[in-house]
Write a structure and sequence with these properties.
This protein has one domain: Tetracycline Repressor, domain 2, CATH 1.10.357. Helices cover 74% and strands 0% of the residues. It has helices at residues 5-26, 33-39, 47-50, 54-77, 83-96, 99-103, 110-114, 123-144, 148-168, 173-190.
Length: 191
Amino acid sequence: MRLTREKAAENRAKVVNAALGLFQRRGFANVGVAELMGAAGLTHGGFYNHFDSKADLEAEACGLAFERALGAIGKVAAKPAGAERRAAMRLYVERYLSTRARDAAGASCPMVSFGTDVSRESREVQAKYAEGLRAYIELMARALEADAATARATIAELVGALSLARSVAREDRALSDRILESAKERILARL
């Protein structure tokens, strides 16, 4: 039975979405093709009908993760300048540096999920990540009503705090919470 183009596109989207969740929780290298196809409800043999390589899928999943992240910061940047945008940015920071975000590894910011892995991945993945990061910096600058340098520093603080908080959350929950709160307080004080 031949798949229709619509069904093939639907299956591809299932694979990308399933892979994204697995990659965000466990990293690119710790997920095999058979596992991710199973998570999508498809057979291992169909993988190469959709992707040239695992790196091809990794790049697409990375792009999807950034698309979602850009949507969130883009909503802030689209608010009218001034008090309304600052209020939206405050809410964004509070959500980004929340214990809920810390504990939701499978639905995380790609800069946190993939940050340490991406340097060891294919050029395709690195290019997709860099493209997403550049777009995120641009939107963050608009959201902050600031220059690119301020946006880069704020992103580094957000990503660094969430990464550190996650890294110690199991062993020292109190320290993890303090990391989130300290970063949140300092960023919010600047808004």
